[in-house]
Amino acid sequence: MSTGAPRIALVAGEASGDVLGAGLVAALRERHPGAVFAGVGGDAMRAAGVDTWHDASELAVMGLSEVLAHLPRLLRLRGALRARLLAWKPDVFVGIDAPDFNLGLERGLKRRGVRTVHYVSPSVWAWRESRAAKIGASADRVLCLFPMEPPIYARHGVDARFVGHPMADAVALEPDRGEARAALGLPFHAPVLAVLPGSRLGEIERMLPAFLEAASLVARDVGDLQLLIPAANAGCRAAIEQALSRAPFPVPPARILDGQAQQAMIAADVVLLASGTAALEAMLCKRPMVVGHRIAASTYRMVKGLGLLKSRFVSLPNVLAGEALVPELLQEDCTPPKLAAAVLAWFRDPEAVAALRPRFRAIHETLRRDASARAAEAVLE
Q1: Which residue segment(s) compose the domain that 283 sits in?
Q2: Looking at the whole model, is its pTM more than 0.85?
Q3: Co-location of 247 and 328 in the same domain
Q4: Residues 6+ apart with CB under 8 A from 15
Q5: How far from 65 is each of 32, 69, 71, 156, 225, CA to CA, in Å?
Q6: How many helices and strands (H and E) does the chain possess?
Q7: What strand order describes the sheet that includes 254-258?
Q8: Domain for residue 171, yes or no?
Q9: Cβ atoms of residues 288 and 352 within 8 Å
Q10: CB within 8 A of 307, min separation 6: which ones?
Q11: What pLDDT shows up at residue 304?
């Protein structure tokens, strides 16, 4: 670290990375009020005082075909960004998630003598552990959100630190369901199912019809069932509205919420969701859930055939517990009747729901480590 005001470069590639980056910058500024920050980020990082040379949305490309279409532009952007960073001479570079973009950028900077940190380990516990060594070739230090990750890196001689999960810091250990229902205008005793088919249009198109049909089957047994369907943005809202209007079966009364996913989960009796970060959030909200997920059949055959998936589970509550706390219905098991049966099991068994809460709380406490502060210390070291 230079003796003057430290220069810290950061690159975040999507909304979640922007939030992580803003928390990290705030914690770094507490420790170094004169620090200077620059790189790539969104509104949250700009508000935290980062000089954003590019917006995070320029990196937010999902899906193989979309990535291939944008690849020349992304490679040009990465090359120009590397040159600008080397000219700016940061004391440390922090790549926040977005591994496809950031690891290559980090590798180029590291070879030129810049200290590099990768914040948010890719899922080495689930996919190809050997990637840990390649990540170490890019990052001098990896900051991990989950406690099972550093031992994997240690096996490959990579410096990795468990800093905790910022979401675990942000969610109350005992969320107030009554307060969440009041905020959403819901009766306290009404049966509520939160439906989260994903935050990307492809996920919504793939998962929501099955989720809505499952909800229709649940409503036959659970009278006056209400659905809450959070929409991540205007495009997602339009896709949800279209799925509701096209449903060839009676759908229970449904409210589409603009964002408010966490409030919807806290208010719900049960959550039906696609695998991903939403499962972690539902666990932190202490809600029973059913995880349903499908990927393209050809992709699934390749993943299974090549033995790429190393974890017994795909949802983070089960991965972190090391056992099946919540049902996972994947691929051919992800059908409306099976989803409905799993949802109904939670509605019918309040004792099972009560037994789940202390398990979820114990995991929550493990992840609650003041992540931004720990990450800041690891960066400043």
Answers
A1: 177-367
A2: yes
A3: yes
A4: 42, 56, 60
A5: 42, 6, 10, 32, 39
A6: 17, 13
A7: 254-258, 226-231, 192-196, 270-274, 289-293, 328-330
A8: no
A9: yes
A10: none
A11: 61
**Average pLDDT value for the chain:** 91
Same domain, 202 and 299: yes
β-pairing, 226-231 vs 192-196, is parallel
Which residue has tokens 């055959």? 301
DSSP string for residues in 216-246: HHHHHHSTT-EEEEEESSHHHHHHHHHHHHH
The two tokens of residue 191 are 């049966």
For residue 241, the domain's CATH number is 3.40.50.2000
Which tens digit of pLDDT belongs to each residue from 99-136?
A: 989 999 999 999 999 999 999 998 887 666 778 988 99
Quickly count: other Cβ atoms within 10 Å of residue 150's Cβ. Answer: 19
Residue 68 placed within a domain = yes
Output the pLDDT for position 264: 98
Helices 371-380, 15-31: inter-axial angle, 10-degree rounding = 70
Secondary structure letter of residue 190 according to DSSP: S
- Alpha carbons 332 and 349: distance in angstroms, whole number: 26
d(CA 11, CA 348) in angstroms, rounded, equals 47
* Number of domains observed in the structure of the chain: 2
Q: How many CB atoms lie within 10 A of CB 370?
A: 15
Q: Do residues 252 and 345 share a domain?
A: yes
- Asked whether residue 1 is domain-assigned, the answer is no
- Bridge partners (DSSP) of residue 230 are 257
Exposed/middle/buried for 73, CB within 10 Å: 0-12, 13-18, 19+?
exposed
